[in-house]
Design goal:
The chain is α+β, with helices and mostly antiparallel strands and 168 residues long. It is built from three helices and seven strands, in the order βααββββββα. The protein has one domain: Alpha-D-Glucose-1,6-Bisphosphate, Chain A, domain 4 (2-Layer Sandwich), CATH 3.30.530.20.
Length: 168
């Protein structure tokens, strides 16, 4: 399932970009996402060309009773890897679920994150991606649910970026 999320900021691109690059972003984002128990920054490597970071998420969701024999709390965790290119003002991201390696073929999520300078010192952020759950019985419903949660996370991140950008 493909998706796109767009946010506009009344903040210049360079200030939003500094917020994107901030090592404090994950910590500040956490309190805005109620279905996430923790975000751990596993790496944050800022170099000449950009940023490479890995965040580890643990969801805080109630697993439906029928799914409990099959889904554990540990299975509701994932790593998000992002590589941000300073020249292009864009990044690629991917999600790797923390499940048995042989099960990882059933889920993939990846995409692109772009910042664009607008008139009057404004910025537009476009997030696009693809979520694919290869489980026939629940595919459509589960993908919609996953994309819905991703959008909530991206909306929360937009608010966090606004906050951080105004502090710089």
């Amino acid at each position: 399932m493909q998706f796109e999320v767009v946010h506009e900021f009344d903040i210049p691109l360079d200030a939003i970009e500094l917020a994107v690059l901030s090592p404090d972003l994950a910590e500040k984002l956490l309190h805005r996402i109620p279905n996430v128990e923790s975000i751990t920054q596993k790496s944050h490597e800022l170099g000449e060309g950009g940023l490479h970071r890995v965040w580890s998420f643990q969801a805080n969701v109630k697993i439906p009773r029928f799914a409990r024999p099959y889904v554990t709390k540990e299975m509701c965790a994932w790593d998000e890897e992002t590589s941000y290119d300073l020249k292009a003002h864009s990044s690629t991201w991917s999600v790797t679920p923390k499940i048995k390696p042989e099960w990882q073929k059933y889920f993939s999520a990846s995409g692109k994150y772009e910042l664009f300078a607008l008139d009057s010192g404004r910025t537009k952020r476009v997030l696009s991606g693809d979520v694919n759950l290869n489980v026939k019985l629940v595919k459509a419903v589960a993908e919609k649910l996953i994309v819905s949660e991703l959008k909530k996370t991206f909306d929360a991140e937009a608010e966090t970026l606004r906050e951080l950008a105004q502090l710089t």
